[in-house]
Every structure is written in structure tokens, then in C-alpha cells.
């Protein structure tokens, strides 16, 4: 594989190919290398106020909610998220918009000059590249989504204005540990002394609050400092003097409540009319996203038990309306397939399973084994790919059936690409 260093006139694809090839590990824990490179090129010396957002699920939707509420008040906002669905450019937004390839190329070129002989992973390049772009755009606020855990994630080199934890569940056990207490301790690594730390999880492990107290973080906790209650069509959010009843948005109410609390803690909460308008218009790709009306098709990135519980909630509302549920699932090999299927299988009338290509993709037969342990569906259809499955399923789909395609960001990307064609 070529190690030829691309230039500022190279394509973004050339750069991404290079970034994938220069570090032997996909994930490398530890902050020293990344911090050194960031300091070499002055990325940490920035006037932007940075909000770090960690969590097993809900980072992307919480960031999107914060972004919308800040933009509506006239602030400039840079948002960094991962992974992307279709194009790398989705990972970095400035004022809600993706950027032209050249922004990323210039940032990677700057990093290549400044890293000297320090090896960086693909994610570390992406994180530093985003920080370089936000610095050049001189944004007021940066919303930085943590990639993995918190303590040793590349994003944790920054000095945050506030730290936000959305949810805590088991994922990436080989790096973060196999209990919620271990995962929570790792995520709490993004807290700083005397700095706001907003925790949206509904059952906060003591390891997180113990660490917060130990370093004297200014914690605001879900369930005690702020609460939200879901109703059929709305949710109620209460924090200090605020008590709002708001129509349910297209994202989990828990994440909307966490975003609202974060802005309130930072004295950045907009007017009630702006809040209502922003939440009503929120759209997040790949989060229970409707791809087609006839036939009725949705897609969702749910890939761990907690996100599958949220998906089950959505599916049950269609079940209540009389729809049959046909599920098409494709997942990565390192995910808790049985745990995910357990959350939704009682709602599903027909299963289709597809293999995912790529080094981490799992096979339809492995998914079938995981599913068989839970239920004895008479028919489980298996396919070599999401596209092959859709070629068969869609022409046959009845008007009383809702198809849900889920299991991974790769699965959702495959579904979106299919419908675009």
C-alpha cells in the first residue's frame, strides 16, 4: 500500500486513503501523541468555547439539538461528529452545513506538516482536522462528540467550557470494561475541576459522580437536578425555574432535556418560542429516519441494547396503529447481537438478515444464530447484502407492513444509498 504523502492539490479521497494506511492500529488509547501534535500547531489555543459530549448513545442527537438552539440565537457553531453515513464531510459542520473538500484537505496538510514523526490514527487525524477547521473559521462554540469512552479519547485533549454525558451502557467492552460502573468512570474522564458537567443518564453509576466530586466538577444530574417526563405526544422538562411542556421531537426526549439543561446551566437558553421551533424542526439522519412512504420504510442506527430499546418504543407505536413489522438487520461482529434482538424481537412479525462487508462486518448466518436463541420465527430470510435484501423485499411489501432497516451506521448508509439510487 502506498505511503506517498498527498499534497494540498490531492483529492480528499487520496487523503483519507493515506490516513487509513499510516497508523497500524484502528484505535490507540492515550492522549500524549495527539496533544503534542495539537500543541505543535497551536490548535488548543482557541477563543472558541468547547462543549465535550460523551455517551454510549445520544451524542449525535444531543449535539444536533445544541447546534440548532445556538444557531437560532445567532452564534457561530462548529460541530464534530462520527462516524459518517455516506461522506466524510458529514463529520464536520460549520453553522449546520458540511464543508467543501478543500477545508479538510488543507487541515490534513497542516497536520501532516506539524505532526513530524508522530503516528496518528484515522480518528485522531479527523479530530485534529476538525479543530483546525474550527479555529480557522473562528466559531463561537464548538460541539465536540467524543469517539470512544472519554478519558483517553482524542477529543479529551481540549479544555472544555462544559462536559456533557448523554447515556451509559455497555459497548466497546474490550476498551471500556464490562460493567456500567467501569464505562461511567471512563466517560467521567471528560470532566474538569470547577467546570459544568451535565449528566443525562437515567440511572447514573456512582463511579461517575464519585469522580466528579473528587475533582470538584460542577455536576448537574438527571433525575435530581433536572427531570423530564414523557407523555404520549409531548414531554415535560423541569430545571430550576423552568417548567416546559414541549411537543415530542424526532430525537429521544432524554437527549433534548439534556441539551436544554446544558444551555440553561451555561446561561445560553433561548426563548420558549425558539426552543419549540428548533425542537419541532430537528432532523437527524439515520435516527428513525423515514426513507419511503409507500412502501413504508424507516432506518435506524441502533446497534446496542440501549439504542434498540429506543427503537422498540418507536416500533410499538406503529404496531399500535395496526402495522405488521418486517425487520431487516445487518450488524458488526463486535456488537451484542443477542442483546439488540432481545429488545425488539417481540414486536417483529418477519425477519430478514443481511451480511455486512468489510473487516468488522458480520454474516447473516451469525445473526441468525443469535436470533434463534431468542425466538423461533418460522421464516428468517438471509441475504448477502442490504441492497440484495431490499431488491427482494420492497416489490413484495404490503401496505399494512412497516419495514425497519437497522443494526449499524453501515447498514443505514447502505439503505440510504439504495433509496438515493
From TrEMBL:
It comes from the Bacteria. One of its GO terms (molecular function) is tetrahydrofolylpolyglutamate synthase activity. Residues 53-231 form the Mur ligase central domain. Its EC number is 6.3.2.12, 6.3.2.17. It holds the Pfam family Mur_ligase_M. Gene3D superfamilies: Mur ligase, C-terminal domain, Mur-like, catalytic domain. It is an enzyme of class 6 (ligase). PROSITE patterns: FOLYLPOLYGLU_SYNT_1 (PS01011), FOLYLPOLYGLU_SYNT_2 (PS01012). The chain crosses the membrane at residues 401-419. It catalyses: (6S)-5,6,7,8-tetrahydrofolyl-(gamma-L-Glu)(n) + L-glutamate + ATP = (6S)-5,6,7,8-tetrahydrofolyl-(gamma-L-Glu)(n+1) + ADP + phosphate + H(+); 7,8-dihydropteroate + L-glutamate + ATP = 7,8-dihydrofolate + ADP + phosphate + H(+); (6R)-5,10-methylenetetrahydrofolyl-(gamma-L-Glu)(n) + L-glutamate + ATP = (6R)-5,10-methylenetetrahydrofolyl-(gamma-L-Glu)(n+1) + ADP + phosphate + H(+); 10-formyltetrahydrofolyl-(gamma-L-Glu)(n) + L-glutamate + ATP = 10-formyltetrahydrofolyl-(gamma-L-Glu)(n+1) + ADP + phosphate + H(+). Pathway: Cofactor biosynthesis; tetrahydrofolate biosynthesis; 7,8-dihydrofolate from 2-amino-4-hydroxy-6-hydroxymethyl-7,8-dihydropteridine diphosphate and 4-aminobenzoate: step 2/2; Cofactor biosynthesis; tetrahydrofolylpolyglutamate biosynthesis. The keyword Disulfide bond does not apply. Keywords: ATP-binding, Folate biosynthesis, Ligase, Magnesium, Membrane, Metal-binding, Nucleotide-binding, Transmembrane, Transmembrane helix. Residues 286-409 form the Mur ligase C-terminal domain. Belongs to the folylpolyglutamate synthase family. Functions in two distinct reactions of the de novo folate biosynthetic pathway. Catalyzes the addition of a glutamate residue to dihydropteroate (7,8-dihydropteroate or H2Pte) to form dihydrofolate (7,8-dihydrofolate monoglutamate or H2Pte-Glu). Also catalyzes successive additions of L-glutamate to tetrahydrofolate or 10-formyltetrahydrofolate or 5,10-methylenetetrahydrofolate, leading to folylpolyglutamate derivatives. This is Dihydrofolate synthase/folylpolyglutamate synthase. It comes from Pseudoalteromonas distincta. The lineage of its organism: Bacteria, Pseudomonadati, Pseudomonadota, Gammaproteobacteria, Alteromonadales. The gene is folC.
Amino acid at each position: 500500500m502506498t505511503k506517498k504523502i498527498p499534497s494540498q492539490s490531492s483529492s480528499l479521497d487520496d487523503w483519507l486513503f493515506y490516513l487509513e494506511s499510516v497508523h497500524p492500529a484502528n484505535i490507540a488509547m492515550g492522549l500524549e501523541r495527539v496533544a503534542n501534535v495539537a500543541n505543535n500547531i497551536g490548535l488548543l489555543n482557541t477563543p472558541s468555547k468547547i462543549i465535550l459530549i460523551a455517551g454510549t448513545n445520544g451524542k449525535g442527537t444531543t449535539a444536533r439539538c445544541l447546534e440548532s438552539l445556538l444557531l437560532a440565537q445567532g452564534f457561530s457553531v462548529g460541530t464534530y461528529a462520527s462516524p459518517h453515513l455516506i461522506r466524510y464531510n458529514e463529520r464536520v459542520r460549520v453553522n449546520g452545513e458540511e464543508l467543501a473538500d478543500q477545508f479538510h484537505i488543507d487541515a490534513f496538510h497542516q497536520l501532516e506538516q506539524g505532526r513530524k514523526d508522530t503516528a496518528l490514527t484515522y480518528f485522531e487525524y479527523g479530530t485534529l482536522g476538525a479543530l483546525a477547521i474550527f479555529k480557522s473559521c473562528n466559531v463561537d462554540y464548538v460541539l465536540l462528540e467524543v469517539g470512544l469512552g472519554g478519558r483517553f479519547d482524542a477529543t479529551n485533549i481540549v479544555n472544555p467550557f462544559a462536559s456533557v454525558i448523554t447515556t451509559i451502557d455497555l459497548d466497546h467492552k474490550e476498551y471500556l470494561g464490562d460493567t456500567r460502573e467501569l464505562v461511567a468512570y471512563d466517560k467521567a474522564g471528560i470532566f474538569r475541576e470547577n467546570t459544568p458537567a451535565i449528566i443525562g443518564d437515567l440511572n447514573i453509576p456512582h463511579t461517575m459522580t464519585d469522580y466528579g466530586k473528587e475533582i470538584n466538577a460542577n455536576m448537574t444530574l438527571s433525575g435530581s437536578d433536572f427531570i423530564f417526563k414523557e407523555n404520549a405526544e409531548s414531554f415535560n422538562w423541569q430545571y430550576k425555574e423552568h417548567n416546559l411542556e414541549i411537543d415530542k421531537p424526532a430525537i429521544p426526549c432524554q437527549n433534548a432535556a439534556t441539551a436544554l439543561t446544558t444551555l440553561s446551566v451555561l446561561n445560553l437558553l433561548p426563548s420558549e418560542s425558539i426552543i419549540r421551533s428548533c425542537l419541532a424542526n430537528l432532523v437527524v439522519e439515520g435516527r428513525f429516519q423515514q426513507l419511503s412512504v409507500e412502501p413504508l420504510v424507516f432506518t435506524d442506527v441502533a446497534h446496542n441494547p440501549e439504542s434498540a430499546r429506543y427503537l422498540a418504543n418507536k416500533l410499538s407505536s406503529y404496531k399500535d396503529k395496526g402495522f405488521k413489522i418486517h425487520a431487516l438487520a445487518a450488524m458488526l461482529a463486535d456488537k451484542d447481537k443477542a442483546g439488540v434482538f432481545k429488545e425488539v424481537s417481540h414486536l417483529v412479525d418477519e425477519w430478514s438478515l443481511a451480511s455486512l462487508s468489510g473487516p468488522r462486518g458480520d454474516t447473516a448466518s451469525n445473526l441468525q444464530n443469535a436470533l434463534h436463541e431468542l425466538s423461533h420465527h418460522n421464516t428468517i430470510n438471509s441475504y448477502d447484502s442490504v441492497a440484495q435484501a431490499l431488491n427482494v423485499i420492497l416489490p413484495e411489501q404490503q401496505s399494512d407492513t412497516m419495514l425497519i432497516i437497522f443494526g449499524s451506521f453501515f447498514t443505514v448508509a447502505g439503505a440510504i444509498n439504495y433509496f438515493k439510487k
